[in-house]
Amino acid sequence: MTHPLLDLAPLTAAHFAAVERRLASLLATENDVVIMQGEALLPLEGCVRGGARPGSTALNVVTGPYGQTFGNWLRDCGATVVDLEVPFHTAVTAAQVERALAARPEIDFVSLVHAEAATGNTNPVAAIGEVVRAHGALFMLDAVASVAAEPLLPDAWGVDLCVIGAQKAMGGPAGVSAVSVSERAWERFAANPRAPRRSYLSLLDWKERWIDTGRRALPHAPAQLEMLALEACAERVEADGLETVMARHASAAAATRAGALALAGGLRPFVTEAADAAPVATTLRTPAGVDAGELVARALAADPALPLIAGGGAWAKEMIRVNHYGTDATPAAVLSSLRALGAALAETGAPVDQDAAERAVRDIWR
């Protein structure tokens, strides 16, 4: 018997190229868009290894765990790395980046995460891009968590390498990702003898075997199901309207933050300033003496499908993350998450006000 997920016609080169064009439209970019056949760490590492080498100096902005990962890759490439670390409950500023660049004129590569879902912060890329462009460095941006959740304009902001994935605000799979590549970035890769070649990490292979040949023949068999899902995600964003999708995420973030504060019980936002808070996820600090993992486990006992997770690493015991992205950027998901957290807090003896939390959420959404 046939199966709709198994008995599929091969994905043609023309179909693959059409999905690339949809993503280019989503990013409002004139640069080449390459769809990589794996999770977004694949193009991110490919960008770092293509753009960095011994003798280069990189400014690596660290506002969360992914920034730390980029620094490790850059050092492994032999680059001198200047880490600009800011507390994870805030965002980096363009002024901080400008000072770091001025102190090290030799910096030729800058890496930044737009929105750190793990810590719940987001960074002012437009302003940062302006100072990076003035300095002349190549600018790489991890926009996996920000695409379709907040404004993202790589060309206008001077971003040379903009990596996106479908698994957050686009509501799709994690198994496929994409990167927009500027002409400057292609030139940097081509001039780097250490840039990956004949490798799954190689963006240059895609350029030479796919883009430069007119996109007539795919270099290898694509991840077909993931490609079709990526296309469906782009279609859904187009149908709803990008501005509408972004507004939904902004409302979810504001409502979660306001609802948590109104709920009380000792919960408070991890990211101090609302302006620094990412629209895809809201991170919350638990009251003193309340283990975040245990609190989340209690909340999920009633409904395991809630978009709640305890923080990782150093924040495993004190941070809760409400992942209100994609199909969970709704009043229902936010209300259900706060009700469950309120009930779990009440079990610890903390005074909570469920009615106030619900009013705060509904007021924001209106």
List keywords for this structure.
Aspartate Aminotransferase, domain 2, 13 helices, globular, 366 residues, alpha/beta, 44% helix, 7-stranded mixed beta sheet
Structural class given helices, strands, pairing? alpha/beta
| Oligomerization state | single chain
User: Gap between N and C termini, in Å?
Assistant: 49 Å
Based on the coordinates given, report the CATH architecture of the largest domain. Answer: 3-Layer(aba) Sandwich
CATH class of the largest domain: Alpha Beta
Number of discrete domains: 2
- Form type: globular
CATH topology of the largest domain: Aspartate Aminotransferase, domain 2
Mean pLDDT reading:
96
What is the helix content?
40-55%
The CATH superfamily name of the largest domain is Type I PLP-dependent aspartate aminotransferase-like (Major domain)
Helix and strand run: HEHEHEHEEEHEHEEHHHHEEHEEHH
Task: Outline the structure in words.
The chain has 366 residues and is α/β, with parallel strands linked by helices. It folds into two domains: 13-239, Aspartate Aminotransferase, domain 2; 242-365, Aspartate Aminotransferase, domain 1. Helices cover 44% and strands 15% of the residues. It has 13 helices and 13 strands. It has helices spanning 13-27, 41-51, 65-76, 94-103, 125-135, 154-157, 183-191, 203-211, 224-240, 242-263, 292-302, 331-347, 354-365; strands spanning 32-36, 57-62, 80-85, 107-113, 115-116, 121-122, 138-142, 161-165, 177-181, 268-269, 282-285, 308-310, 319-322. The strands form three sheets. The protein has a seven-stranded mixed sheet with strand order 1-9-8-7-4-2-3, with helices on both faces. Strand 7, helix 6 and strand 8 form a beta-alpha-beta unit. Helix 11 (292-302) crosses helix 12 (331-347). It is globular and about 65 Å long. The termini are far apart. The mean pLDDT is 96.
